[in-house]
Batch of 2 targets.
Target 1
Amino acid sequence: MLRRLGFLTIGLFDPVDPMTGHEETLRVIELGERLGFDSAWLRHRHLQFGISSPVAVLAAASQRTSRIELGTAVTPLGAENPFRLAEDLATVDVLSRGRINPGFSVGPPMNYDRFRESIYPDTADREELGYPRLERFLAYVSGEPVSDFEGTVGIETYSRRIEPHSPSLASRVWYGAGSLSSARWAGEHGLNLLTSSVVKAEGSSDSFATIQRRHIDLFRSVHPAGASARVSQGLVVIPTDSATHDQVARYLAYAEARLSRTRSPQGPAGLLFAPDIVGTAAQIAETLHAHAGFQAVDEVAFALPFTFKHDDYVQILTDIAERLGPALRWSGAMS
């Protein structure tokens, strides 16, 4: 039984008219709430024509919605200052009344070597981009001291911890893991796990679904919450029940163009991609029920394809909520 249904969007925009794309992203999130989705997630993109500041967009979305949870999947911490990010996310969490789900990755962001000097002009070679960066963020949002002073100076009052403090925010931090080692680390540190449509094969010839299930099982085996530790799956699914003939043709062409990368591990990192799932809600549900990764989760954040039109997203989200969700035994309350 699917307990929580969410979706993920990259929030594409035209570089000569960025307002329209950002506004459409907000409208998609509003639609998601009306359709009863439990969560909406933003993908983080630097130096691309997708959302570069998800915290700002989530702040706007928090004021245009009242129930749907809002997350990032994922923010690469290598381009962030954990201190400032903790302040920003805590602020938005307070404004949203506790609906923010920050998702992170560590390591160098994509194309980092091409812009790292712009972020760290004097310290790029000395920056720690691994797990300690995320551990610092977790400490900050948990309320641990970041200053050795607390008190009043003149009319100014100071705190030792990040303010505002949102007490439950740390429990809603997610980690995007695509390897066995990262899944283990996330579990050992008590985080929630985001799985996507990409995993590292790590020398295995097994299927994507089998490898993803291995990650999930390992994560839960070392997590303090055990089998009840939260895991969300993020495959690309495209239901066609209410789609026009033109939409169906474009959807199938999109999936076909991306199919070759799913047949074997790609690149030096050995990345294995999951096939996009296109078809009726009944067909997609049958495929998911047979998927070893899906069988281990009760939460999903289905990824919207990158390059589709706003009307396509409306059709896809509507079919997911009204047809695919029920086929997966999800019963979201319409708001």
Target 2
Amino acid sequence: MPKVTIYNPRGEKEAEGEVPEGTSLLHASTELGAKHGSACGGVCACSTCHVWVKQGFDSLSDMEDNEADYLDRAYDVKPNSRLGCQAQLANRDVVYQITEESEKTWYDEHPKERHEAEAKGLWPPKK
């Protein structure tokens, strides 16, 4: 099983673990407890699960036209950008960083956790 290492938008390690081959990056994040949001529920109908792949980019499933079209709508797209709901793991380890837009979406989807983070001064993050 490939090992996945996930960083938050500020470059801090948020989660790490092994997940089965064929798992999407979004599902891997969910399984490992990372704050990786997806407004459409992971069906390639938005760009909020956007990530930057730091290691293992070439081992991921190929990008199809629909993903490329939605990725064009994402904020701060880079050559190593993928949509977490579409990029599936092969048998190699992958390291990726969740974008600010995706983390914000996660907090929007989890109001209880957002309110708790706000009360502790952890959300929104300090720049």
